[in-house]
Design goal:
By secondary structure, the protein is mainly alpha-helical. It is 62% helix and 6% strand. It contains 9 helices and 2 strands; from the N terminus they run H-H-H-H-E-E-H-H-H-H-H. A two-stranded antiparallel ribbon has the order 1-2. A hairpin with a 7-residue loop joins strand 1 and strand 2. It is elongated.
C-alpha cells in the first residue's frame, strides 16, 4: 500500500512546494528566496538539505523538471515546476497542521503558508485550533492553582507558569487574527498578492 504523499512531506518540503506555486524555479533560486524572506528563522535551510528535499519531492511526483540551462561558468541548473499532486499536497498539509497544537514548528510553517487556503477554510481551522488552545490553557491554569494550593514549591512550577502565559498570549493573538479575517481588513489568498517592484526585484536577485 502506497503512502499518502502528504504523510511524506517535511516542513521544508512544504516550503519548496509553496515556492513553486509562485513560479517555476531552480533550487538555487529557492534557497536564495527562502533566505531573503528570512524563512530560515523557521527551520534550518542548507543547500544540501534543500537539494535532497527537491529530489525526494520529484520522486514522489509532487514536482517535475521543466528544463536545464547553463550561463557562462555557472553550474548547470535544473528548473522545476509544481505538479497538480504537489499543489494539492500543500493545501492538504496546511489543512492538517493548522489546527494542531502539538507540533509547534509544523504549525508555524502551516501558518506562514495558510494564505494558500481560502479565507473561510483558514477561519474554520483556526477556530478548531482555538478550542484546543482554550482546553490546554485551562488545564495549565487550573493545574497551577491546585499546585499552589497544595504548597508545591514555586521553583518546580516555572515551566508550567511559562506555558500558561504563552497559551494566554497566543489566544489573545489568535482572537485578534480571527477578527481581522472575519472582516475585509486583511487581504487574503494568492490573488491578494501583486507583483510589486520589491517582489520582482527580489525574484531577479535570487535568480542571479
Amino acid at each position: 500500500m502506497m503512502k499518502d504523499p502528504v504523510d511524506t512531506l517535511t516542513p521544508l518540503g512544504v516550503m519548496v512546494l509553496a515556492l513553486l506555486r509562485e513560479s517555476d524555479m531552480h533550487p538555487y533560486e529557492m534557497v536564495r528566496l527562502l533566505r531573503a524572506r528570512h524563512d530560515d528563522r523557521l527551520l534550518s535551510i542548507t543547500n544540501g538539505t534543500l537539494y535532497h528535499t527537491v529530489a525526494r519531492l520529484q520522486k514522489t511526483g509532487l514536482l517535475d523538471e521543466v528544463g536545464t540551462d547553463r550561463e557562462g561558468n555557472r553550474p548547470e541548473r535544473t528548473t522545476y515546476t509544481l505538479t497538480d499532486a504537489g499543489r494539492d499536497a500543500v493545501v492538504a498539509w496546511v489543512r492538517r497542521e493548522l489546527p494542531r497544537v502539538d507540533r509547534e514548528t509544523d504549525f508555524r510553517i502551516a501558518l506562514a503558508e495558510s494564505h494558500n487556503l481560502e479565507r473561510a477554510d483558514v477561519v474554520a481551522l483556526l477556530r478548531e485550533r482555538r478550542e484546543a488552545l482554550v482546553a490546554s490553557h485551562a488545564m495549565h491554569r487550573d493545574g497551577l492553582r491546585k499546585a499552589h494550593d497544595k504548597g508545591v514549591p514555586a521553583q518546580v512550577l516555572v515551566e508550567v507558569e511559562r506555558q500558561e502565559v504563552l497559551l494566554d498570549a497566543e489566544l489573545r493573538w489568535l482572537d485578534s487574527l480571527l477578527t481581522r479575517l472575519d472582516g475585509d481588513a486583511l487581504p487574503w489568498g494568492p490573488d491578494a498578492f501583486t507583483d510589486t517592484d520589491r517582489y520582482l526585484a527580489q525574484r531577479k536577485a535570487a535568480q542571479q
